[in-house]
Amino acid sequence: MPAYRRVLLKLSGEVLAGGASFGIDAERVESLAREVADVAAAGVQIGIVVGGGNIFRGVAAAARKMDRVTADHMGMLATVINSLALSDALEQIGVPTRVMSAIEMHQVAEPYIRRRAIRHMEKGRIVIFAAGTSNPYFSTDTAATLRALEIKAEVIAKATRVDGVFDKDPLKFPGAVQYREITYLEVLSKALAVMDASAVAMCRDNKLPIIVFNLTTTGNIMRMSMGESVGTVIH
Predict the structure, then answer these.
(1) What is the C-alpha to C-alpha distance for residues 205 and 201, in angstroms, rounded to an integer?
(2) Are 181 and 233 in contact (CB under 8 A)?
(3) 6-234 sits in which CATH class?
(4) Contact criterion met (CB below 8 Å) for 170 and 163
(5) Alpha-carbon separation of residue 177 from 21, 125, 146, 200 (angstroms)
(6) How far apart are alpha carbons 79 and 81 in whole angstroms?
(7) N or C: which end of the chain has fewer CB within 10 A?
């Protein structure tokens, strides 16, 4: 029995790159789609926000000299590319999806309309929210938090490459200590680089829990959805 009725899954763009430094790894996207499909089949309504780092990293050197607003808009368009790739992988295994973009582009995605997004989820479709918030200076973490609150998700599931929240970067410091539970205030005061401070503050103000877990462990999305102790809970 699922622990959550509706979940917002936040994925980094790098997840879609697999072992590569940038681009899209078709096998990685397919395996991710199968995991998400299994969770949806268990009765969980799923919204997804995916970052654009795997696409935008490839032009990061050029972006250094760009205007911040222009660079942010390019990053938003990168999330649309990733959203379409994930949507295609899900559709190919028979899972109905909708890509909803905060920047209108009618030929490739539906415009984001809150009530329509909720209706899609109620009908069993997976909704992938693309193009961030459409505003520069906001990260995809903030976009994920905003969408989670708008669709009344019960939790934000933040998928990462490590097992949860640590006192320091476990990829650089082997002795890093993992937290099983931690408060929003501790995350902010200790400047733990889990999510953007603005996203954590929004979750705190609206009492929306965040679960940070390792996506590279197969089956973790299902375990998290079933309420098993996976990763770190921020509440």
Answers:
(1) 6
(2) yes
(3) alpha beta
(4) yes
(5) 27, 38, 30, 21
(6) 5
(7) N
Find out whether 83 and 51 touch, Cβ atoms under 8 Å: no
Question: Which one-letter amino acid corresponds to residue 148?
Answer: A
Extents of the domains making up the chain: 6-234
pTM over 0.70, yes/no: yes
Instruction: Please check the confidence at residue 60 and state whether its pLDDT lies above 80.
Output: no
Maximum C-alpha span of the chain? 51
* 35 CA to centre of own chain: 14
Per-residue pLDDT tens digits for 63-119: 678 888 988 999 999 999 999 999 999 999 999 999 999 999 999 999 999 999 999
Could you tell me the two tokens for 229? Answer: 């102790």
CA distances 164 to 80, 144, 194, 210, 234, Å, are 27, 18, 9, 11, 10
What per-residue confidence (pLDDT) applies to 164? 94
